[in-house]
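Bumping with the actual sequence this time:
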Amino acid sequence: MAPTVEVLTSEVVVPAEETPAGTIWLSNLDLAARRGYTPTVYFFRPNGDLGFFAADVVKGSLARALVAFYPLAGRLGVDGATGRVQVDCTGEGAVFVSAWSDYALVDLMREFVPCREMRDLLVPPTPAPNPPCALLFVQVTYLRCGGVVLALSMHHSVCDARGAAHFLETWASIARGDDADAATANANAPVPPCFDYGLLAARPGPARAVLYDHPEYKPEPEPAVVDAGAAASDDYASAIIVMTKAQVGALRARCPGASTFRAVVALVWQCVCRARSLPPETETRLYSMIDMRSRLDPPLPPGYFGNAVVRTSVSATAGEVVGNPVGYAARRALAATSQGDDYARSLVDYLEGVDAMNLPRSGISRAHLRAISWVGMSLYKADFGWGAPAFMGPALMYYSGFVYVMNAAGKEGALALVLSLEPETMPAFRKVFAEELASLEVL
């Protein structure tokens, strides 16, 4: 019999103190983000503590975290005059679910891949992501072995992945008591969040300038590529593949001047093109999401909590990607990941002139790949006082052709690749990617 999950309680956790009321204006990048919830999971090994993930500690620290991150206790709303989506700071709280499962952590970690079945088991159900709706859903699932799964669904209109990691790091810091002692808090507590989304407002009319094409945000979808088949469907296979520190180092040596993310994505791009057997003349496009916090002039504050990522892309023919050394694909990836302040400001200005709340957000052609970097994020700083997560990752992939690159848990310098491909493509990808990793090991 397949393991099951039984919901024990479902309640609303409100901020521990009174929080500011009113509304929060959202930037064009917030409006252009995918309108939906982002489900993530964190797996924790039991540590023998009788108070391990005690419900009162988890809920109490969440209530205090919602004081600092008070927009998450509000609801998605609409400006009655303009129809623009905003956050209504109502203080109504976040939905908190506790559950029990007959899963053992060792089995869960062996079987887990991001998919609807795992999402439905471990992540609390969410409503339609339209106003009015709650912005944060949390589930704590206690496993029969004593381990715990912490799952979050956070509305993407409120923040991106780095903002979500900032919130979780703050919540964990409160749970383990870092804020109880001022000296400790100054040393370890995360920076306060910043909700000044006006920092990403479009420039005034005369100063507004759209200097780039921004095809990733165009209302018209890209033309279908006959040789590559139709657009990718929501039917996909997922995999989690770990690259060792040695393999990452050897790959970077093949890609002079490339960052770790670009080198890894270049290799994945090559292997995906091979696994899909794309004809050499087929256009293949690499999409990415770039965090602009430190690239703006001046940079955004360290605690900026909204969406500060922009979509970018670059294209090549499949023959170019496959027929050249991996360093070629890495140089092409550089073109999709090196944008600065002028590019971001151009995009914000462009979005001011279109319906940013109703941009196309469907999947991509099966000739293409979408790569997202979570490298260097504080994903494993979510120590609630009982140890760091044994694993974290997305609970769901939205369509085929996605790859997340992130640090691997407990393995310094190693990376975890979480990717989705067409079910018929995944076996071939696993084979060619394993061959490439083996070739890196003999260098």
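The tokens above came from a reply further down the thread. DSSP finds twelve helices and 16 strands in the chain.
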